[in-house]
Amino acid sequence: MVKVLISLSVLAATATAGSVTELPESVTKLIDYSINPCDDFYQYACGAWHNDAVIPPDRHAIDTSFSKISIENQAVLSKIFSDNTTKLGEFYNSCLDTATLSSLGLTPLEDSFKAIRSANTTLDLLIVAGELVK
């Protein structure tokens, strides 16, 4: 009885679903109609896209939705990094100033090294580590 009800439900759903008579333009513009789909269905279905797509030389593939998100994220990050009023901006800019970094050497880290060297117990070292992460 259950099998009959399920079969009838599937039949009713299929009958009322209607049918697609035309593909959307976003799909048809990707099709290469010069290819026989029985010979190479992938080339038939995506061939026009392959012929028209421009893949940048520094990339091996392209995904328009993820590329767009990546470009937008990069713009947001660049704005954050270039903002000199924040610590993040200062840190980012300091990484780019290699001449100053070379001249300073390890001097900016001396206080941290002294604190680590002064730890005599495991507890002292954990306290110093906690202070350094702030």
TrEMBL record:
The keyword Signal applies. One of its GO terms (biological process) is protein processing. Keywords: Signal. One of its GO terms (cellular component) is plasma membrane. Residues 37-132 form the Peptidase M13 N-terminal domain. GO terms for molecular function: metalloendopeptidase activity. Pfam families: Peptidase_M13_N. It comes from the Eukaryota. Residues 1-17 form the signal peptide. The keyword Signal applies. This is Peptidase M13 N-terminal domain-containing protein.
